[in-house]
Amino acid sequence: MRLRSHAHLLESPLKHISTHPLLSLQWNRHPYSTTSESPRKEIAVLGGGITGLACAYYISKERPRDNITIYEAGPRLGGWMHSTHVEVPGGRVLFEHGPRTLRPGLNGLVTAHLIQELGLIPDVIFTPKTAASARNRYVYYPDHLVRMPPYESKIELARRLLEEPAFRGLIWGVFGEIFRPKRPADLTDESLGSFISRRVDPRVVNNLVSALMHGIYAGDVWQLSAKSLAPMHWYLEGKFGSTTRGLFDVNTTNKASGDNPGAPILRRDADMIKEMVREQLEPDFRKALRECSVYSFRNGIQELVEHLAESMRSNARISIKLNTTVMGLKLESKDQGGIKVREDSPSTKDVVVSTLFSKTLGNLCISDDGKTQLPALCKTHAVTVMVVNLYFTNPKLLPVEGFGYLIPQSVPFAQNPERALGVIFDSDAMKGQDTVDGTKITVMLGGHWWDGWGEYPSEEEGINMARSILARHLRITESPAVARANLHRDCIPQYTVGHDERMRIAHAQLKSAFGGRLQVVGSSYTGVGVNDCIRAARDIAKGLGENVWLLGEARTGLDHFLDNHSWVLPGGK
Ligand SMILES: C=Cc1c2[nH]c(c1C)Cc1[nH]c(c(CCC(=O)O)c1C)Cc1[nH]c(c(C)c1CCC(=O)O)Cc1[nH]c(c(C)c1C=C)C2
């Protein structure tokens, strides 16, 4: 890694401002306004994961004249997006140690454009919607695999809904939703578990929704926030008294005004879509995205990180500091000056964009009395996940072809004493990354089950736990040719009940303590997926490009939590 000298960063940016010829004209109005002649800004991005890299990429596009420094505490970029090639008998296979696939969709639009801009399209591999792994998704309940809808026929649907214990409560729960009473007016948030229990049935929560929450948040459905995780359903209940009635009303109104049917979306999402459609995707790529369930890259998801990093290294205005821990952040003065970044060689920046876990950031911002200036950010909890990758030479080990299965919270302890969250059939889910046949499986352990644990299983223990899960659930008793376990501490922030309100408070605290000099983005705030993080990075860069880092109208990255979610119909009304 080439590291450039950062001696120039130690100078205060005020030094340049004070010698600037336009100073007398501009200073009183917009101390940080940017014209083509204004001094270069110094921008720090904390964290070299996908959000940090995407932030630096988009900020450099918005503000090509400014200097950007990325601070990464570890020795490599990419955070927990990490793919490795492993030698196995007869060839090599790819192990994904974190997220493994990308999904087309709303925030996925931004990722797709990024991939195109980075010239990465030739490396993309797609899993079509018609593939077995896209159609066959399972839940393990209570002691066997249950395939999730859609099914091939209505008869099969009826049979499974009636016979499988996993679906108990679903039919009458869904039909009855329309008749359930509206939530009390003073209820400002509740757990997703409680929301769906109220509106549908608690069995649906325990047997199905909890499994889904394991697959996305590795989290506890009884703690995650309904308002944050199911904002549209929350909104529809509030406005129409029932989600079903709300969707029906919205669609009738839409049809009457000649618009396509569909669900309401957030105004900021509608604006983003309008913006993105102006920037065209290559037609073949767009078509492949439309027809795929998920996609990745020939050499794994890490390719995205590597290409982003490459584009940073070729940009003389961007420096990357690896193995550099930021130990503190301090505003130099309320109305002028910058924000001091304390590390081995401290420097002053005009703006710091933090992509760190919010609690880590809160602990960096300590006032003179020794307390954090951002207490709301310190309240976020994150779960720890162990990812166990296994490769077996036998290509015919799996009892079914599919994506894999998720394990709901209601599975009896005897069936899941290891507290696994789910199992992914990698060799089915993403083809074209290995040079040899075999069966590749990932077992995910821990998440909320490990909350409060002071110690976690060792790698060896994790591998043994994964093997006993596979033996019990799938009757796989063969020894893997290769097994790896990686523990990801605090890797998935949990949007627990009250997240929305905490983010509003955090916005006020950031604004008051840093006046817009410190902005936040990443998985602690607006979505834990790769697509969410890339989209949020683009949003924050657009904010900086719009020249709003003026002290009077300081942005924080959490500004949209204030607008209390304005919704629009698919037609844009
Ligand atoms: C590696 C652990 C992760 C778990 N959840 C996430 C990660 C990175 C984040 C996540 N996973 C999914 C979504 C939904 C939206 C999306 O981007 O697809 C999010 C935000 C869905 C998902 N869950 C699993 C997979 C393979 C996918 C597709 C996306 C991806 O490749 O990450 C499986 C899975 N993830 C977790 C568990 C416990 C699990 C179990 C089988 C936790």
Strand and helix map with partners:
Layout: H1 13-18, H2 23-26, E1 42-46, H3 50-62, E2 67-71, E3 83-88, E4 91-96, H4 108-117, E5 124-128, H5 132-135, E6 137-140, E7 145-147, H6 154-163, H7 170-176, H8 192-199, H9 202-217, H10 226-229, H11 231-240, H12 243-256, E8 265-266, H13 267-278, H14 283-291, E9 292-297, H15 302-313, E10 318-321, E11 328-331, E12 339-342, E13 347-349, E14 351-354, H16 358-362, H17 375-378, E15 381-392, E16 404-406, E17 420-424, H18 426-429, E18 439-447, H19 459-474, E19 482-494, H20 499-514, E20 518-520, H21 530-545, E21 567-568
The protein binds the ligand C=Cc1c2[nH]c(c1C)Cc1[nH]c(c(CCC(=O)O)c1C)Cc1[nH]c(c(C)c1CCC(=O)O)Cc1[nH]c(c(C)c1C=C)C2.
The ligand C=Cc1c2[nH]c(c1C)Cc1[nH]c(c(CCC(=O)O)c1C)Cc1[nH]c(c(C)c1CCC(=O)O)Cc1[nH]c(c(C)c1C=C)C2 binds next to helix 9, strand 15, strand 16 and strand 17.
Per the CATH scheme, the topology name of the domain at 7-78 and 301-377 and 499-563 is: FAD/NAD(P)-binding domain
Portion in beta strands: 15-25%
Rg over C-alpha atoms, rounded to the nearest angstrom? 25 Å
Strand order of the largest sheet: 7-6-16-17-18-15-19
Counting DSSP H or I runs of 4 or more residues, the number of helices is 21
Pathway: Porphyrin-containing compound metabolism; protoporphyrin-IX biosynthesis; protoporphyrin-IX from protoporphyrinogen-IX: step 1/1
Subcellular location: Mitochondrion inner membrane
Keywords: FAD, Flavoprotein, Heme biosynthesis, Oxidoreductase, Porphyrin biosynthesis
Enzyme class: oxidoreductase
